Amino acid sequence: MNAPTLPRAMSAQAAVLDVSRTREGVEIAPGVHWIGALDPSLRSFDIILRTANGTTYNAFLVRGSAGVAVIDTVKAEFANEFFARLESVADYDEIRVIVLNHLEPDHSGALPELMRRAPNARLYISTRATSMLKALLKPKDADHPFEYETVGTGDSVSLGDRTLRFLHTPFLHWPDTQCTYLVEQAVLFSGDVFGSHYCDSRLFNDRVGDFRFSFDYYYAHIMRPFKAHVMDALELIEPLRLDIIAPTHGPILRERPRRYVTHYRELSTSSLVERIDTETRSLAVFYMSAYGSTARMAEAIRAGAEELPGVRVSLYDLEGGETGPFVDLIEEADALAFGSPTINGDAVKPVWDLLSSLVVVNLKGKLGAAFGSYGWSGEAVRMIEDRMRGLKMRVPVAGLRIKLIPTDEELAECRDFGRRLAAAVVGNAQGRVIDFSELG
Q: Domain 273-439, what architecture?
């Protein structure tokens, strides 16, 4: 089949663009078409994300002189929409290459049927994706011969006059994720990177409504836990010429695409190191106090920790505000201490709210500690410690529990607790003898 003539495929330069009114492909660059699907009614994604504006499942088709490539597919429920747009710009026997930048079901849902319809195609996936591919295939798909090849950074595939080059970008946000770069036209098919859950039938960032909140919200919940991997990916992406960034969700970024790359670097860079010297370590102490006893413990812990040079201690009363704004502070702190009284055999709700919000932050290896007063049983401290360990934090100092109102001697114990925690923060912690009664 020869390259289609417009208006068979809609032109991206059309004065008015509303892809909800048609099932034809949309040209985003010469020979490059969007063949995705709209999901405007979606209100939650992967349970944890709210999607007030729905989302899109972006898939793309690239035509070269030696064949056609399809880059990503759509959620299975939207396969008919995807195939209709694909058929508007290409025949199945032209397809030589299928690329999946990410195998999550919202991108791979139409893959088995596409492979059946495109017998000449070979599938290209990242080196980390093979086990996921096998897990995604249903028994009815297993009989179909999936011809696939694994690729990594620097590998490429030719479509004659077009070249697709692969960038290995793991953990953005699954281990298998990669980006695909169309060299000749400087189009980056970025997978989930630079995406957003924002459905607008006008499709392009210079046409749609204001999606800045959706862009940042998506980063905070999808990419933020993997900031180190984001920075690694940016090292590969920033040197590229970028005329268009085409993510798998949200608007296609054709107006000033590099500003979104710059924004990712800003979001992934700690601001704390710009405000205090790099030799200073930070300890954030969060507490909730019913009758003032846990508050007195927190103040004594701060006083003890501040005795060590090189440690900056901040104290936050959770009764005084929402927990959400504290997430940024927690992410940048070197160590965290959580204080709670025990009420009805449990830590208080604001402490749990704060701890539960930390799933969006990479806490692995960060230091943690727990303390609190109690009247009867005192379970809160150990429960908090268990949660911190579940978040892959290190707990170098055993939790401190004090019954009812702390005495002067017990406040001195709190100050010593702060000193020992600060010593662990700066790397001067002494090994401790474990009392087996602590493990009960």
A: 3-Layer(aba) Sandwich (3.40)
